[in-house]
Amino acid sequence: MSPLDQLGAMAVFARIVETLSYTQAAASLGVAKSSVSKDIARLEASLGVVLLRRTTRRIDVTEIGRAYYAYCARVLAEQKGANQFLRQTTEEPVGNLRVTAPVTFGNRAVMPALCRFVERNALVQSDLELTDRTVDPQEADLDVVVVISRDPPDNAESRMLMPIEWGLYASPAYLSQHPPVRVPDDLRRHGFLSFRGPAHSPALMLRKGKREIELQVRHLLRVNNSTAVMRGTTSGLGVGYLPQYVANEAVHAGTLTRLLPDWSSETRIAYATYLESRYLLPRVRLFIDTLVEYCQEHGHALRGT
Fold this sequence. Notes:
Domain HTH lysR-type: 5-62
CATH architecture of the largest domain: 3-Layer(aba) Sandwich
Distance between the termini: 72 Å
Structural class: alpha/beta
Strand content: 25-35%
Family: Belongs to the LysR transcriptional regulatory family.
InterPro entries: LysR-type_TF_proteobact-type (IPR058163), LysR_HTH_N (IPR000847), LysR_subst-bd (IPR005119), WH-like_DNA-bd_sf (IPR036388), WH_DNA-bd_sf (IPR036390)
Number of strands: 13
Radius of gyration: 33 Å
Protein name: DNA-binding transcriptional LysR family regulator
Low-confidence stretches: none
Number of domains: 2
Helix content: 40-55%
Keywords: DNA-binding, Transcription, Transcription regulation
CATH topology of the largest domain: D-Maltodextrin-Binding Protein, domain 2
Shape: rod-shaped
């Protein structure tokens, strides 16, 4: 008898000991009664001992059979525990969740969504890294990487979170001391503060209906963090090129003014990216679902629309 066949026969033997019935054992295992009898006969022959004494009226477990059953029960308990572990791993959110996101968007959207996820899933330990550097999920030991780009990354699976619209802003103090901005060409007379990133070009694109303009503007300062750009803009240093979700609170507070509101600039998309897997871990799937849910609920407030 092969080791695999013996494991199957051990399960049959254990079930007979527990039910003291070949018929009940066969029914609980979903096999034919004749198959149960053959398994026990082969097992006893392989071991060279008698495990069960069967008469027309009852089944007796031999002394060696009772001792052998203790080992069988432990093997089956380990198998059951292994199955439960796999079910927890594949069906229940457990383990460590590792997420990274851009600093500003991470504070505004990812962190609130992560707090909601943590409240719902107490068995998951979560780590969030906020960084404006480019992160490759294939190279980093991460479950979810939030990116803001024109198109979904080619090297990972992704789900769209929300559009990120950009605009031009200046402080009232700056506008009172510099030439007015009534048409796009007026922007050539101003210095710019803008986000520095691999996906951003030095040219400024503006659209109004079917009309599209590309302007080469003078950059006074480029920073890899939108909050820093906003601070420089509110201080009156120049015209800020900012995501609307970053600038809208300052606009409502009166510390920033939207320039050329009839003209639209670029729109990027926030994506939750993750490595492709046939079996996406529950903690990853549920966190992404929570993040999508949060962005759907609060997208208009984040964008200031």
